[in-house]
User: What shape does this take?
Amino acid sequence: MCFQPPNDNGSRLKHYTLEWIRDRPESVYTGNDLSCEVKGLKPSSHNYFRLQASNCVGSSQWSEVITVVTPPAPPSIVPEVRLLSATHAALLVTWLPPADNGSPVSHYIVEVIGTEICQVEDTQMFITNLKPEASYRFVVMG
Assistant: This one.
């Protein structure tokens, strides 16, 4: 967050206080800098902030509330991958969709470690041409 210094009314500014307004206002920054980093914002969310300046005489009124909209982020980790069924040469693998973090998951990348990488749109994949008695590891990403 960046902000501009207000008129100091003849007394040097001591510090700024930035509040993040959620269930109740929470101070997330107090300091002299005209910018700060706010951590803990969720992807694709509306966040509300207000600012106050203080000098040796006292504190200003709170600024008007500003809205900051965060951009979407990549999907979270696929939470669970399961084997649904198996034959001697094929597997049906399924998974739960991850949190989309503000943008729908368009496809999944399924990697059979050491052999192939596939792209699918559904939350399951039928994997064929496997060798009997062999071990396979899978990685699924949204």
User: Anything to note?
Assistant: The mean pLDDT is 91. The beta strands are 13-21, 25-31, 46-55, 66-69, 81-86, 91-95, 108-112, 116-120, 124-127, 138-141. The chain is about 0% helix and 40% strand. The longest strand covers residues 46-55.
